Amino acid sequence: MKTRLRIALWLESLRRKNLKQLHPLQQLFWESTLRCNVHCLHCGSDCVASVETPDMRAEDFLRVLDTEVTPHVDPATVLIIISGGEPLMRKDLAKVGAELKKRGYPWGMVTNGLAMTEARYRELRAAGLRSITVSLDGLEEDHVWLRQHPLAFEGACRTIRLIANDPQPIAWDVVTCVNQRTIDHLPAIRDLLWSMGVRDWRVFGIDPMGRAAKNPELLLTDEQFRYLMDFIVAEREAGRHVSYSCEGYLGTYEGQVRDHLYQCAAGISVASILIDGSISACTSIRGKYYQGNIYRDSFWQVWENGFKQYRDRSWMRQLEPCKDCKAFRYCEGNGMHLRREDGSLMLCHLQRLGQK
After folding, report:
1. What residues in the chain have per-residue pLDDT under 70?
2. Contact predicate 84/109, CB 8 Å
3. pLDDT score, position 46
4. pLDDT tens column, 13-52
5. pTM score, two decimals?
């Protein structure tokens, strides 16, 4: 590893240490629904939750904001991200967004775009929508296959064009789950996205969790994973803003495939309120790591005094493959969502890259 990168990683570890002590709440995810209009092969829920699980009442979430969050933060500094399921399944989405806007919170959403129309988009923008992420996972055949809906590709592209043609641009990007079927099509996917006006593209692999654990063909081989890293490096060198997702320490690729060095902000500056009221960090983190529940606990007390497993990762140091890893000071055991409930790690990116 080059000395310059080593110094940068050391400084980042100091910054992260200070951030853990301060733990400013900067992003709050709201898992507003588990209903969805597609049936993705890689869905992390593994079909455990279904349409039988009721949406969380908007007033419950807003109550937490009003009584537990707003008294302690400047709302303008906390981004609310509405997730699912598919947020567009909620008929009251714009109404909720307007309530967030009224309280001074910027808000965004993650969507597959299938249910988006021009009228719906205008309604959400009027309600204060400030950021949006659209999922498009390949060219038409591959995207439809992964999302298991014949109109999934059409919906995603329609939504992308609506955002790209907005005369008052908002913060937005497209995310792509790269798998064995699409790894060789990345240049063609890039060309399609750029032709529609995309200028911010995030890519990531699929983790062996949920339905993906039963579909090993979705998971990149180590060789394909290395190819993905090299593709991103080449794209960035060519001046295109392509980046790898936030998960995972990437060794010598750090500083080359993202706008920032690796960090897992879960439980440090990122929290979530899940569909059943559970207080967590990222929405895909397993139940063992939930910190409380808004229906019995004070959210702010949990945020201030909980999340010990997130802010002190020394317990990971006792487990393989972290036990004797010299990179632990930089990686700190990888992303929390990659930890099973028994604490074991699903993936080590350093191992995949042949750097451990």
Report:
1. 44-51
2. no
3. 47
4. 999 999 999 999 999 999 999 999 999 998 865 445 455 7
5. 0.94
